[in-house]
Amino acid sequence: MPIDFRNTNTVWASVLAETLQRLGLTTAVICPGSRSAPLTIAFAQNKKIETIPILDERSGSFFALGIAKKSYLPTALICTSGTAAANFYPAIIEARESRIPLLILTADRPPELRDCHAGQAIDQVKIYGNYPNWQAELAIPSASRGMLDYLRQTIVYAWERSQFPTPGPVHINIPFRDPLIPVPDIAVEALETEFNPEDFFAGLEPIFAGESSTPPSPPLLRGGEESTMQQWQKCSKGIIIAGVAQPEFAEKYCSAIALISKSLNWPVLAEGLSPVRNYAQLNAYLISTYDLMLRNRELADKLTPEIAIQIGDLPTSKELRKWLDKTQPKRYIIDPSHHNFDPLHGKTIHLRTSVENLATNLATILTLVPPLIKGGLGGDRSPAPTNISHQIPPLTNGESTLVPPLNKGGLGGVQTSPSNEYLQLWRNTEIQVRQTIDQKISAINNIIEPKVSWLLSQILPPATPIFIANSMPVRDVEFFWKPNHLEIKPFVNRGANGIDGTLSTALGVAHRNQSSIMLTGDLTLLHDTNGFLIKNKFVGHLTIILINNNGGGIFEMLPVAKFDPPFEEFFATPQQINFAQLCATYGVEHEIIDDWEQFKQKLSFLPNSGIRVLELQTDRRADAKWRQDNLSKFAKDL
User: Fold this and answer.
1) Which whole number is the average pLDDT over 620-631?
2) Cβ-contact 543, 606 below 8 angstroms
3) DSSP per residue, 321-364
4) Where is 420: in which H helix or E strand?
């Protein structure tokens, strides 16, 4: 019997847990406490839900966030009353901004024990402000059938709102009166004889945000004298920007972008935190060095687009953002959520649809429009493709060599039509800048930060999940991550861009997953060392690649670095930590990496279980100077 009829609180909590399990909940992260005892007992007794106890609420909330990122399902997060709930706040903010489903269940004192110094009682109603998708306080538990119906349907609605119309956090505050432990209550036990669980839970089925939730094509894509897509087809100077993304079905996502790119003959500027760079075989028009190209002002002017299709968030690159702000192309933002994805406030039109849905509509519309004179697809009127995963022919190893190298300031001897010249300029420049980067970095023998992300993009086992920390690692990935065919799965916390809970999130991503990688700096790891307490409950393997430059490397790239004091003490904030000793405290394997061959050997095959730290000790100032000296030079002579 899934329902515990020992007393009112046990009935209430077990109905709540059983309802969520039937809706599709698989994991609950529980932080210890007394007021939440009914919830803890109910979830722990439900054998179909994995319940994971975690001491630190902040760490636990980010661990839950990581699990939800990987599974694309809500994870339940449970705590006791008082300030315990406040420690969930950073993860809830990140879940909101990253559009990750979380279900937060905070236990609370009953109303009569609030505002009277009863202890461990704070105002928890709407404690997370406007960040939850939806929030409510439940009624005081009652064992009557009518109130249990209310509880069930409220939880059903909470589950739905964590996923629709946009995934995000939902907060349920749950007051409990004593007794908090499952002592028997004869009056409640009598209810068991009248309770029919099959009738009570009839109709409850898992609810998932699947393809059926994708909205229909927006009006802008249909009808009219000249549809949006016809405008796109007539434009010979268009670009597609593939921003930060963690799609559930990465190959389908990348194939959809490739189909749009190939159909329009537009290049795809792919952020390093997007899976597009890791499915390079799908996209012949992939551009990975756009940040470095745009540092060449003359070249940036030649590359000015008339239209840009932005898929999801903008990439991290400041150079790209400044260029878009300066050139002001007409920009279409593709994302099914209700969020505003335009921090530049440009000439933007939000099309509230998925890129997969857009590609399907494009494939359909192309069978209905007449041949175009400029930049079109000819008169092919064959039936619209139905499986976008296989529309774009693989990019062969030799394909890029068909495009001649770029002479300074032009396209060399390439014979192209006016409609193709813009695309060829992007492709030729990409080839040359990529070759320059590869030659420069491959010749570096000493341990230097930029080479880490460049090398990782080539040596990781296929389909490896990698969690990339904020600050300098995400920027090095954007600068140097090389396009590959390895189908690596990048994960990031780029909603609020903070360093909170990075280790815990990475462990959540790696939990019951393929052996995973985390790329981080020293300060970010130190900010969440309590994440190591998850070690005894963690199932799987995580290799932490620790770039230890004894401080905040990102600040060395900013103007404030010129002002010391107070720069070193208050911005770089070196901590002088011996990570071997720190790891030993938690029983975590640690090794210092001295050369690149050792680095490659350690990552060519990943263990199946445990946590290990591979530490690369670098020179913060020297690495910053290398970037400052080289980033603007890679495309300087084109």
Assistant:
1) 95
2) yes
3) HHHHHHH--EEEEE-SSS----TT--SEEEE-S-HHHHHHHHHH
4) helix 418-442
